[in-house]
Amino acid sequence: MTGRPEILFPLFAGAETLKGVGPKTAQSLAQIGLETPRDLAFSLPHSILDRRRRDTIKGLDLPAIATVEVEVGRHLPARNRGGAYRINVADQEVEFQMVFFHGRSRYLEAQCPEGSRRLVSGKVELFDGVAQMVHPDHMLPLAEAEDIPEYEPVYSLTHGVTQKTMTKAALSALERLPELAEWIDPEQARREGWPAWKEALTVAHHPQSLEDLSPEAPIRTRLAYDELFAHQLTLALARQAERKSPGIVSEATGRLQAPVLAALPYRPTGAQERAIREISEDMARDRRMNRLLQGDVGSGKTLVAFMALLVAVEAGGQGVMMAPTGILAQQHFEGLRPLAEQAGVVLELLTGRDKGAERRAKLAALEAGDIQILVGTHAVFQQDVVFHRLHLAIVDEQHRFGVRQRMELAEKGKGADVLVMTATPIPRSLALAQYGDMDVSVLDEKPPGRKPVKTAVLSTERMEEVVNHLRRAIGEGRQCYWVCPLVGESEVMDLIAAEERFKHLRATLGEGVVGLVHGQMPPAEKDAAMAAFQKGETKVLVATTVIEVGVNVPNASIMVIERAEIFGLAQLHQLRGRVGRGSAESTCLLMYQPPLSEGGRRRLEVLRESEDGFKISETDLQMRGAGDVIGTAQSGVPRFHIADLERQASLMAVAQSDARSLLTMDPGLQSDRGRAARVLLWLMKQDQAIRLISVG
Asked: Which of 274, 324, 438, 640 has the greatest number of C-beta atoms within 10 Å?
């Protein structure tokens, strides 16, 4: 099956082929991603209006939606231009008015002749003590009463599209749903009480109660499962393709690793040893490694990554480590340099700042194999970067890399092993969504010597106390990070906030004691400010954003975060992890501006009570939702129409094991269920998966 199956053609026509959708409406729908009947079928209602008939509006708690039979009374046309046209009507017990702005007399007299009976439905409100129904949603002769559903679905709209149009278009899309063979394991469908796909979608657009809208409702769970299963199938196919593609065998000899481990002032943790062992075993196989190394701040990922790079060099190859920003690449380079010296290997840094002769020299050395380990930014991806023998590519992820980019990276070195490191502990459901194609190593222990960081929550009203505490700490030879608030989208505002704080601290603590870094600085100035702080020349570093504090300064034992309540949990946890790396007791001060919102208070409490990044990220997910936690724009996490990652984490795990077992039994998806699963991939627009099948 190389092209879309014919049975799905009607679902992938243009939206303008649906009832009630003209070219203009189609344009409006496209703005919210609804371009085909398929998209409309998967756009489920988010609530319902109860339009069940009642005898009277008397006793209703207004404003409320009501559907009543009325006798039409006098018409009261507008007295002046732009005024309201009113029609007196009476139900079984009370009189009220229907009100129309810009109402045309002729049209309304024809629709609702005096003395006729009509079924009307709409929002009833009190205005100056008179009950009114302004612009009824429905106004029908009694013979057409059946046209008003008891429960009317409510859809998300965009400019230029009404509920009426949306409902009509969605129902028109449902008419095109074909009967499709079942891709879910029959046993599972029976156990869960799930209906067939077509029935589930049809019922989902005709909810009969609020329960029908819940993610836990069987129809919704079934449709969510379809999405998750298609996604996990794509990841499992990517994983299968990886495993088929021949890898490079890198046997660890320990020749370079041993002197590095012997020189460490501490023994690696059990979790580090386990991760090093898992990675080394993977690299020794003849299939390509595709592994995720997940660990909390300070869990020692760098050492594990470096050991993996040494395995590549021991086997006569090269390794590359890629970071998302120049500052982080620099930091990795600085951190790895002493270890590389210990091992006697050539380590080099390549970023976008390398220009001209310097860059050409580095590229020539890399191609000749004289550089054994390269650290860099996305610049290592560029066309002119050629490796002599690339064995291992490590990506320091920071959520910016999806499946596709990982596959591209591996193309740099044919068959090179891939290790992805993530600095932020990710809740399990998100990890499965983003990294379901990978094997996972988790670092869940802290290396010895990492002292817990004391976390205190203080009001900004105690600013002077904090500055005095800081003065004493500087007197004792300690250093401090001072992070200024992110004032929202405005970098200018962020800047003002940081500059003001810098001036205030400089005036209080003295000239030459305080440094400043922010995003608008020229790179050379930024590097100089960082370097002065690293060398201990400045004692306090005022910074705007998180990433810019990506330097490792063991002597820095105080972290002040101003307006901490407006930062995300993961961000705060990352920032806190910047201290506590030396021998001194470390403190993190979270300063908030009263009054605190409920969410702000909860976030700061979670942080004060826990240092466990995995626990913090779970709380973050519950509080903010998946999209916010990971920043959907950059993440490799897909956007699901129906599935809810926060509430359906266990469903994702079931989908993963189901997808993997289907492919184990039927790697080419040739069985009846396999062929149905192919149709599902087309239906869910998983083109990447389809490419992988056709290649495979």
From this structure: 438
| CA–CA separation, 443 and 219 (whole Å) | 39
pLDDT of residue 635: 46
Distances (CA, A) of 258 to 32, 252, 255, 264: 57, 11, 6, 10
Query: Tokens 């449709």 appear where?
Result: 223
Distance CA 64, CA 60 (A): 7
Identify the three-state secondary structure at position 600: helix
Distance CA 590, CA 593 (A): 10
Q: How remote is the C-alpha of 394 from its chain's centroid?
A: 22
CB 660 within 8 A of CB 437: no
- What was the pLDDT predicted at 210? 83
Query: Which pLDDT belongs to residue 378?
Result: 78
**CA–CA distance, 229 with 219 (Å, rounded to integer):** 15
Q: Is the peptide bond before 63 cis (omega within 30 degrees of 0)?
A: yes
List of residues 6+ apart from 86 with CB closer than 8 A = 75, 76, 97, 98, 99, 100
Sign, CA dihedral 415-417-421-425, equals positive
Cα–Cα dist 509/503, whole Å:
10
Residue 566: the pLDDT is 83
Q: Are 132 and 66 in contact (CB under 8 A)?
A: no
Peptide bond between residue 149 and the one before it cis (omega within 30 degrees of 0): no
Instruction: Return d(Cα 178, Cα 197) in angstroms, integer.
Output: 10
For 260, half-sphere exposure in the C-beta direction (CA atoms, 13 angstrom radius) is 24
SS3 448: coil
Q: Write the single-letter amino acid at 183.
A: W
Write a three-state SS string for 495-507: HHHHHHHHHHHHH
The stretches in the chain having pLDDT less than 50 are 1, 399, 488-489, 546, 548-549, 627-635, 696
Residue 83 phi/psi, 5-degree rounding, is -80, 180
Instruction: Give the pTM.
Output: 0.69
The DSSP H or E segment spanning 692 is helix 687-695
The confidence score (pLDDT) of residue 14 equals 92
Strands (E), 112-235: 117-127, 130-134, 138-141, 151-154
Phi, psi of 66 (to 5 degrees): -140, 150
Domains 257-443 and 453-610 are alike in CATH topology: yes
DSSP 254: S
Q: Count how many residues are written for the chain.
A: 696
CA atoms of 237 and 285, how far apart (whole Å): 20
Counting beta carbons within 10 angstroms of the beta carbon of residue 490, is it exposed (0 to 12), middle (13 to 18) or buried (19 or more)? exposed
Q: Domain 257-443: which topology? A: Rossmann fold (3.40.50)
Domain 453-610: which topology?
A: Rossmann fold (3.40.50)
pLDDT at residue 145 in the model: 84
Instruction: Please tell me the predicted confidence (pLDDT) of residue 630.
Output: 44
What confidence score (pLDDT) does residue 573 get? 87
Report domain extents, the chain: 62-148, 257-443, 453-610
CA dihedral (378, 379, 385, 390) positive or negative:
negative
- Which CATH number applies to 62-148? 2.40.50.140
